[in-house]
Amino acid sequence: MKNAFIILTLLSAVVGFKAPIAWVFVILFGTLALYCLLTGKGTGGKVREKSAAVVVWEDAVDSALKDCPFCKSKIIKSASECPYCGVLLEDNPVKGMDAPDKNAPL
């Protein structure tokens, strides 16, 4: 469908040199073609599926990260300290550390 909008846009532009009203169709079809191109729609209204490379990449990133037990941000699995909240994690030999008190003065 997006190819049809692109072709109609080009044809309207060619005709537009002789009939200025055709520029309305250039704007209309060009907008529809750009929408289909950017959203991935155009064949039966289906959204473009992720490629195999994207799926593999997302799985690799998810397997290399874990959630911080205190601030719930994504951090590297091998990290001994959360870079966001500064809490020492379980893998560190120093045990018994709690989450930092946010109300404590610095």
Detailed description of the structure:
The protein is mostly helical and 106 residues long. The chain has a domain at 2-39. The protein is 43% helix and 6% strand. It contains three helices and two strands, in the order H-H-H-E-E. It has helices at 2-16, 22-39, 52-64, and strands at 65-67, 74-76. It has a two-stranded antiparallel ribbon with strand order 1-2. The chain is elongated. The protein starts with a helix and ends in a 30-residue tail after the last strand. The mean pLDDT is 74.
Helix content: 40-55%
Radius of gyration (CA) equals 27 Å
Largest sheet: 2 strands, antiparallel
Give the overall form.
Answer: elongated
Tell me the strand order in the biggest sheet. Answer: 1-2
Strand content: 5-15%
Q: How many beta-strand runs?
A: 2
Helix/strand structural class: mainly alpha
**Count of helices?**
3
Average the pLDDT over all residues and give the rounded result: 74
Low-confidence segments = none
SSE run: HHHEE
Which features characterize this protein?
106 residues, elongated, 2 strands, mainly alpha, two-stranded antiparallel sheet, 3 helices
Summary?
The protein is mostly helical and 106 residues long. The protein has helices at residues 2-16, 22-39, 52-64, and strands at residues 65-67, 74-76.
